[in-house]
Every structure is written in structure tokens, then in C-alpha cells.
Amino acid sequence: MEDRGDAQGDYLRIEGASKRFGETLAVASVTLAVREREIFALLGASGCGKSTLLRLVAGLETPTTGRIVLDGEDLSALPPHRRPTNMMFQSYALFPHLTVAANVAFGLRQIRPHMAPKQIAERVDEMLDLVQMQAYAGRRPHELSGGQQQRVALARSLARHPKLLLLDEPLSALDKKIRQRTQLELVRLIQRVGVTCILVTHDQEEAMTMAGRIGVMSPKGELLQVGTPDEVYEQPACRYTAQFIGETNLFGGRVTGGRLRCDDLPEPLALAEAGRPADGSEAWLSVRPERVRLSRTPVDKADNQAPGTVDNIAYLGSHSDYHVRLAGGRTMIASVPCARWGEDTAPVRGDAVWLSWAAPDGVVLTR
Fold first, then answer.
1. What is the pLDDT of residues 78-135, one digit of tens each?
2. pTM of the shown model
3. Residue 160's pLDDT is what?
4. What CA–CA distance (Å, rounded) separates 77 from 237?
């Protein structure tokens, strides 16, 4: 899959970039366009090549094929320290023997021609003020919390005013509560500075919260789909994306008479007219759990419905995920708001129920 974008408005262009390590293809001919001031997330499972792609942009690895163009400049011949990029690593890579202020100043002291000491001090103050760490300027990394270390690392990454900020799993070292709070804080800081940013993560919630667009990568190093968070979630381009982003009920079969006939279902499934494959085609239907209605009795005029038995229930506070076993042995998931039952008694494990959904609530996939 290629995301060619708009060549006139693209700030960063990755053109057919591949990377091999011996016989292993880590990145498979990725073409991608990122806009100026955009926060773009590369999302995928561990080992899918997303961090390798980031290292290609930073100059820490050399592409086997392809090229990378930033703001009209081909970066191919530039070593990492000459590129207008800065990378914030998963471990933060703070120098333990240096103070917070000295860590932020370190990169500024490497600039040639040299910055004057007064300029460096002013820039350090500016960055620490940005991340609200002025009061900790004299502390060393071991005296800071994980969230504070993350802010210092960000200040150091932004101090040289890079054209492109590269974040490699920037929040993975934080616990869940702090990570959720820090996601929006980090977005506000990046937007305030106005820097273009590529974020690498395996956490779909992090990608969907922080990024304006997401690129989903496969385990084979391919770029499968690029889109806004709602586009990638609501309209997945393939089975991998549908299953990797959130939960889904996935049915596979052949299209017959405009419906999907599945071996483990007694009745063929109604499909939305838009994008329906031709009869005889192999296809899959993705139905998100929140699109599935759970009831105690059949629903009148439902496009698709099936009886089943509640096999398990995951209570998640605002909603419960009902795992329902159908007659053919398949298990479907229905996400039901806890307020749905009102004063009625909610179904429990072993109860007979009906699942139903409208044809337009399913996404037809052909790969």
C-alpha cells in the first residue's frame, strides 16, 4: 500500500523505502507522505519494522532502496548529526551524571558554529519553561519520576528546533494512569511548538489519542493503511487492520446472491450494497462489537441475527462485553452499555440471547 499524498503539500516524503538485514526484510517498500505540523503515528505489533522506519528517517540506518525527502531536501547523503531531525528514544537516554539543565543543554553544545553560553542558557530556560520543569533544573535523572524524565527528554529533543521530531515508544515506560494523562499533555506541547512529529507505538489507544493520522504496519514491514483514527477504525482496509485496531467479529466466506455464505453459520449474512464484491468472490465481514445488539428475543426486521448462549461476560465499567456462543460453535462479542438494561436484569452466563446488526454496520473486506 502506498500513501502518495499531495506532492505540493507534503513536508516529509518517504519514497519506496526498504530495509534488509541479511535475508530479513524489515521494511517493505514503504511510501508515505507527512504534512507540516502534523502528528503522525506509525502503529503496529512488535517487530513490524516501525522503529526501523523511524531510524531510516533519523539516519541511524541506511535504506536498502528508496529515499527520504524533508522540506524539499533529500536526506540520503546527510549523516544523523547533520539532519534537521531529533529522536526521543523509548529509554529517554538521559545522562545520569548530568543535571536536568545540562541534559537539555548537551545537544546545543554540539552545534557548529558554537552557540554562545548566554544563548544556550536562554534556550535551556525556554525549553524547561515549556515542559514546566524549571524547578527541577538542578536535579539529576534519578531524582525524577518517570513522567518528569519524559518531559526532560522532550525538552532536550526540542531544544535544537528540529524540523522533524521522532518519538520511539515515548510513553511505554510509564504506568497506565500516568501514560493516559501524559498523552494529551504531550500533544499540547508538540502543537504549541508547531513541530512536525512522527510517533511510533504498538499501543492503538495511544496512536488514536495523539495522532491526526495513523499508518498501520503489518508484521512483514508493509504499510497497510493510512487514515484518521476514525477512518482506520470504522473503515479498515484489510483483515489485519480490522483485527489489530480494537475488537471485531470477523466472518469469512463467499458472496452468493449478494450475501456472505459462511460454513459455520446457518444463514448467509446480509451485506451493505456499497462496495459489495461480485458473486463467487471470497470475502470477509468485520462487525465491531458495539455495532451488535444483544436482546433476549428476536428483533423484528433485522438484517442479520442469530441465537446463542452467553458464554462469558467481561464487565468494564461503562459497558460489558458479552461473549456469545452461536449454534455452529463460533463466539461473537457484543459490547453493551451497562445502562442498557435499566431496571431489567442483565443476561448472565448460560442465558439464551439473540444477536443482531444492520447490514451497513459491517465492513466488507476482500483481503
1. 999 889 999 888 777 889 999 999 999 988 887 767 788 899 999 999 989 988 899 9
2. 0.88
3. 86
4. 35
Coil, strand or helix at 310: strand
Could you identify the residue written with the cell 504549541? 192
- 106 DSSP assignment: H
3-state secondary structure of 124: helix
Superfamily of domain 12-240: P-loop containing nucleotide triphosphate hydrolases (3.40.50.300)
Strand (E) or helix (H) holding 149: helix 146-158
**Coil vs helix vs strand at 55:** helix
Please name the residues in contact with 314: beta carbons below 8 A apart, sequence gap of 6 or more: 320, 321, 323
Query: Which of 140, 178, 154 lies closest to 89 in space, CA to CA?
Result: 154
Edge to edge, the sheet with strand 304-315 lists 293-295, 352-357, 304-315, 319-326, 331-337
Distance between CA atoms of residues 244 and 351, nearest Å: 30
Strand pairing category for 213-217 and 223-227: antiparallel
> Could you tell me which residues come within 8 angstroms of residue 166 by beta carbon, excluding any fewer than 6 positions away?
54, 57, 58, 85, 86, 87, 88, 197, 198, 200
- Per domain, the residue ranges of the chain are 12-240, 247-365
pLDDT (0 to 100) of residue 171: 77
CA distances from 271 to 125, 132, 245, 259, 337 (A): 59, 53, 22, 6, 26
Q: Which fold has domain 247-365?
A: OB fold (Dihydrolipoamide Acetyltransferase, E2P) (2.40.50)
Could you tell me which of 277, 309, 44 has the C-alpha nearest to residue 53?
44
Q: Rounded mean pLDDT of 28-32?
A: 97
In terms of Cα–Cα distance, which of 293, 292, 330, 288 is closest to 311?
330
Other beta carbons within 10 angstroms of residue 367's beta carbon come to 10
Q: What is the pLDDT of residue 165?
A: 95
Length, in residues, of the chain: 367
What values do phi and psi take at 263, rounded to 5? -60, -30
Q: What is the DSSP letter of 205?
A: H
- Strands 259-261 and 319-326, how do they pair? unpaired
